[in-house]
Design goal:
The structure is a homodimer.
Chain A: E1 3-9, E2 22-28, E3 37-45, H1 49-53, E4 74-81, E5 91-94, E6 101-104, E7 110-112, H2 128-141, E8 148-152, H3 157-168, E9 172-177, H4 180-189, E10 194-197, H5 203-210, E11 215-219, H6 224-231, E12 234-242, H7 263-266, E13 270-273, H8 283-295, E14 303-307, H9 312-321, E15 327-331
Parallel strand pairs in A: 8-9, 8-11, 9-10, 11-12, 12-13, 14-15
Antiparallel strand pairs in A: 1-2, 3-4, 3-6, 3-15, 4-5, 5-7
Helix pairs in contact in A: 2-3
Amino acid sequence: MKTNTQVKLAKRPVGLPDQSIWTIEKNPLPVPKEGEVLIRTIYVSLDPAMRGWLNDQKSYVPPVQIGAVMRAGMLGQVVESNNPNFQVGDHVTGWTGVQEYAVSSEPDIMKVDPNLIPLPSYLGVMGMPGLTAYFGLLEVGKPKAGETVLVSGAAGAVGSVAGQIAKIKKCRAVGIAGGAEKCRYLLEELGFDAAIDYKNENVFKALKKTCPDGVDVYFDNVGGEILDLALTQINLHARIPICGAISQYNRSDALKGPSNYLSLLVNRARMEGFIVFDFQKNYPQAIREMAQWIAAGKLKSKEYVVEGIENFHSAFLRLFSGEKLGKLILKVG
Amino acid sequence: MKTNTQVKLAKRPVGLPDQSIWTIEKNPLPVPKEGEVLIRTIYVSLDPAMRGWLNDQKSYVPPVQIGAVMRAGMLGQVVESNNPNFQVGDHVTGWTGVQEYAVSSEPDIMKVDPNLIPLPSYLGVMGMPGLTAYFGLLEVGKPKAGETVLVSGAAGAVGSVAGQIAKIKKCRAVGIAGGAEKCRYLLEELGFDAAIDYKNENVFKALKKTCPDGVDVYFDNVGGEILDLALTQINLHARIPICGAISQYNRSDALKGPSNYLSLLVNRARMEGFIVFDFQKNYPQAIREMAQWIAAGKLKSKEYVVEGIENFHSAFLRLFSGEKLGKLILKVG
């Protein structure tokens, strides 16, 4: 008899999560009701935002409850259907979390075409991370041709797309990433104009060198020291889309605020947060445009796939250690 | 023979300025050239921004140079004129600094009507502070009727105007100020809906109580802890015009960045700096509108006048100690 392996939240983490915050359970398969389908999870998306969902605090989505299956984006296949809109074998995406099987129905799941792009890309460049980059850069950052766009976490799922879209919009794209391999990837594979290796370079000096005309848009995925240094280099009327702050997510004390925020005043600049879900009504148009860029070879992506639901925790930690290149994905089925 | 007492910058301060950073000199009166006028200073404007101008760093205006007359807004009277557009006796405003006499000409000085409003108001509600409040609130904060507008430094020259304009625009205005007298002034004289005495109240609890529907616009004059607490109370799509950070200006170490800035992300909110000078082309329209509000009794102001150019330093320190109510002005002549 088949079982459903599920990763559930056992307790709330303080600082960097350890294995003890999860329980791994084997439960009976759920049974789809009328109108529902049973989905076999193939890929689970691992995203920095998941760390925030573990904290018991008011945010843009409720925290994951203790005892609940860990929330995550998923790509899977319909294995049983009580819904005429879904056939067995259809591929779908949704938010059914870190488990081998799940029951769901519309509008929580969406069919995707496995022949258009590789399946994992539906969780990366064509999924939430790609859309986050698209709307954060274009709607909040509003880059103009010729401007300098600085991106942190630039080799990651969101940053790599933000930088490439900056190039498509005829901006100078400068990426900050950790390590020589990621920087090489930005320059040689993704076409960034410059890359800063924050693990091996003096970031302040490197910003001066790689952004000689200052920074017009700083797309921030990391917060902390790098945000503070970027603030010293912004131009008049600069825009700083706040996408995330991965350097700060595992702090157990108060996070580091940007000491140099008065640079916003001096430069009449703007720091603005955004959440991709707010742009939902424009997803189809964004996906269409990004699919064209992918087809034209202008938008590339890489996925870093870890196998086995039992490796969820160690895979999850790679988000924070940076030991991965591109979009981090857990292969479950 | 008349002399010109001038306050000059002798050296750059570290932390809270002490008297030794200034030299007071008595020099011969300057002589106006063709097209110029000689002005006798009556009032000097004392503004928190002056502290920033003492630091040797890139900003929206160059720092005051060592040995130069301290930069400041001024209202004075023409005592000698080589310019047909100015008569002896005309009242003018300009940026001639902390000295008894100065030579200037158009476009650096502007005539004002002494019969329209009290002279000191040209340095307050109808001067740079009033315009700062007007544009910062309306153009950056963009308050909508029914929204909650929170103002820090609310009894000061800028904050008091920002709060009153919020009321004129049919918002709920909540002010933060130091001490019972200032809070009483906000409530009883200026018509704020609520006041928080940060020196004697738990600001977090007071924010919860006075802003039960959250904060839509936070007009920040102070930075530091209060900015951090305000960030915990902002609503979706809130706007935070960054006008100043007086709590931080005299720090000799790195200033305190807002630890809670990720509230911008969660709430899709915006923190934006501005400088009043950017709105120069709209000054006439703003002054017209504010003059109507003053005439209609909707916009009130108070000036706190300290007498004697020799008291410049002790008067200047009141900006930071808060020992004044309303717009701080030094009476020179």
